[in-house]
């Protein structure tokens, strides 16, 4: 049986570069998918390169889709900075 993955996510309070960097720094190294998500978000905001493995990128896209679906279902706020940035980073807009 496959082991479930559990994530504890620190979410940015805004879509400002410094705020996303703050969250990335605080959680860096805990999960390749979250690291990749933050890198992709920073890539959008600050034109910084995202250096993710193909596996992490695939997990990140699944995470971005999940965040978008949770917002669509009303569980997360559509205007949440993490949701907006995840949608953009995952090409879901």
Q: What string gives the helices and strands in order?
A: HHHH
Mean pLDDT: 90
The total count of helices amounts to 4
What structural category arises from helix and sheet content?
mainly alpha
Number of structural domains? 1
Binned, the helix content reads 55-70%
Largest sheet: none
* Residue runs with pLDDT of under 50 for 5 or more positions: none
Q: How are the SSEs ordered, and which strands pair?
A:
Blueprint: H1 17-27, H2 32-46, H3 54-72, H4 81-89
Helix pairs in contact: 1-2, 2-3, 2-4, 3-4
Overview of the structural elements:
This protein is mainly α and 93 residues long. The chain has one domain (17-89). The protein is built from 4 helices and no strands. Helix 2 crosses helix 4 and helix 3 crosses helix 4 (81-89). The chain is globular, with a radius of gyration of 12 Å.
Give structural attributes.
mainly alpha, 93 residues, single chain, 58% helix
What's this, in brief?
The protein has helices at residues 17-27, 32-46, 54-72, 81-89.
């Amino acid at each position: 049986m496959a082991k479930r993955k559990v994530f504890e996510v620190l979410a940015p309070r805004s879509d400002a570069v410094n705020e996303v960097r703050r969250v990335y720094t605080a959680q860096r190294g805990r999960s390749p998918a979250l690291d990749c998500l933050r890198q992709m978000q920073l890539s959008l905001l600050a034109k910084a390169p995202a250096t993710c493995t193909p596996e992490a990128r695939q997990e990140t896209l699944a995470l971005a889709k999940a965040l978008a679906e949770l917002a669509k279902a009303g569980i997360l706020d559509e205007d949440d900075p993490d949701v907006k940035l995840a949608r953009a980073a995952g090409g879901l807009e």
